[in-house]
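C-alpha cells please, single chain.
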Amino acid sequence: MEVTVRTVLLPAIDEEWARVIAIQLAGMAHLARTRGADPALARAAELAATLDRLAANPIVAAHWPPVDQTPASVFAAVGSVLAEAVSREDAAGDEVRVKVRSIVRRQLDDDLAVTGALMPYFRGQLPDA
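Here you go.
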C-alpha cells in the first residue's frame, strides 16, 4: 500500500492538504509493515503481575483485580491506580508511582521509539524524499 500511495496517488494530487493526508497514509502503511507484533498482551501481563504483587496496597486493592484480565481491563485498572496515586502523598501513593508508573513510562518510551518514525509523515514530509 505504501508503494501505491507513493507512486500512484501522490503524483496525481496537486492540492496541498490532500497531499499531506496521502503522506500520512503512507506513513501509517509503513508503520503497519515494519512495527512488529502487537506488544499489548505482554505489556498487560507485566502490569497485571505488578498489580498482583502490590495487592496489599490500598490504592491497588480498590481497583484490582478486575472482573477479567483482558488487556483493556488491565490497562483501565492501571489508569485508575495511577490516577488515584497522583493525589496521594503517602507510602501507598509512593509505591504506585515507583513501581507501576516506571513500567508504564518504559512501555510508553518503547512505543515512542517505534512511532517516532511517523513524525515526518505527520508533518506532510516523506522522510526519504
